[in-house]
Specification:
Elements lengths: L53 H6 L6 H64 L1 H18 L2
Length: about 150
């Protein structure tokens, strides 16, 4: 009976362990700090980790059963756990930054609103104290805008 290598999805074909820079570290992690995920690392490939890849096992005619699926699922869980460990602090920093920015924007909006209200009240008082001057300035300003828009 043919091997059931097509039952396991893979994002990229795996390579043999001898082609990696360090036999004890997974591909793409040589020199990387513990817990970090490198750019080229294939976390979802069942061929990463210990033992022969699914392609090598299939080439030798070994049968993959529930144990192989279990190992593959365990490696997936480990990869997801590593991603979560790396992503959690970064997401927390992002959330903190967004919260701080949101607070700053709210304070600035409140200050701008207060300034606008103060200017509007000041203008109202000026118009009440000098109505003729206010109308003359408004007419002159209107004429100036009219000439500029021609």
């Amino acid at each position: 009976m043919a091997s059931s290598t097509s039952s396991f999805p893979s994002s990229a074909p795996s390579s043999s362990a001898s082609s990696s820079p360090s036999a004890s570290s997974p591909p793409g992690t040589a020199g990387a700090p513990h817990g970090s995920v490198s750019v080229g690392e294939d976390l979802l490939s069942p061929g990463t980790g210990q033992g022969p890849s699914r392609h090598e096992a299939g080439d030798r005619g070994e049968r993959q059963g529930p144990e192989a699926l279990e190992r593959w699922v365990e490696r997936l869980h480990a990869g997801i756990d590593r991603l979560a460990e790396v992503a959690a602090p970064r997401l927390q920093r992002l959330q903190d930054g967004v919260s701080a920015t949101c607070g700053t924007l709210r304070r600035q909006a409140h200050l701008v609103r207060e300034d606008g209200e103060e200017w509007a009240e000041s203008l109202r008082c000026t118009v009440r104290e000098h109505p003729v001057t206010a109308v003359a300035l408004a007419a002159a300003f209107g004429m100036l805008l009219g000439r500029l828009n021609r």
